[in-house]
Amino acid sequence: REEQAQAVLALAKESLTLAKVNSARADEDFNRAVKQFKDKIIAKEQFDHMQKALEAARAIYNIDKAKIGTAVAQLNVIRTELTNTKIYAPMDGIVAKRWVLKGDVVAPGEPIFTIYDLKNIWVTVDLVETKLSLIHIGDRASISVDAYPQQNFEGNIFQIGSNTAAEFSLIPPSNAAGNFTKITQRIPIKISIKPVQMKGQKDPPTSMKLLPGMSVEIKIKVK
Known about the structure:
The chain contains two helices and eight strands, in the order ααββββββββ. It has helices at residues 2-38, 44-84; strands at 94-98, 113-116, 122-128, 140-145, 152-160, 186-192, 194-195, 216-220. Strand 4 and strand 5 form a beta hairpin. The longest helix is centred in the first third of the chain and has 41 residues, at 44-84.
């Protein structure tokens, strides 16, 4: 559609150029006819013919000029529609899950891809609520990753959840029937993670891939 609209615009520009030339020629012919009519060289009928030719040439020029505006507007609409067909991710990352296929119809807000930003990763820990008073933002933690048993990692607590993990689960607990069973809840916390320089290593390793869903063990150093 964009190529077709560009072709229409190009044709309209050519028509406008030709109409401009014809209008200028008709204007010259009319000015000459005015002088000749005053000098009684041409008849009134011929003068009227020149005047109508000028009016027709100007009308064609104005019509072609309007067509340029219409063609430009149509091309802009098509380009806007094409721009709206492109969806940009809010960040760089790796596509971990594709939720739709080519030809599927999606609704506003419906996920299309799940993208992981592997440059900004953390560990999520569901801490039992009885130990919540022992931890604080910034507390250090030692981390062991099952995939790399020979490498130590460390991090710091940078976020403590504002609700229990069960509060927004698919089936949240309900005591509407009056049957109350006390269950120790867990609070989600987030801990940054980075490799520690081990003995014999010149620098901390940077090539280890830490992927979402990996199993780890955490030891938080409380103050």
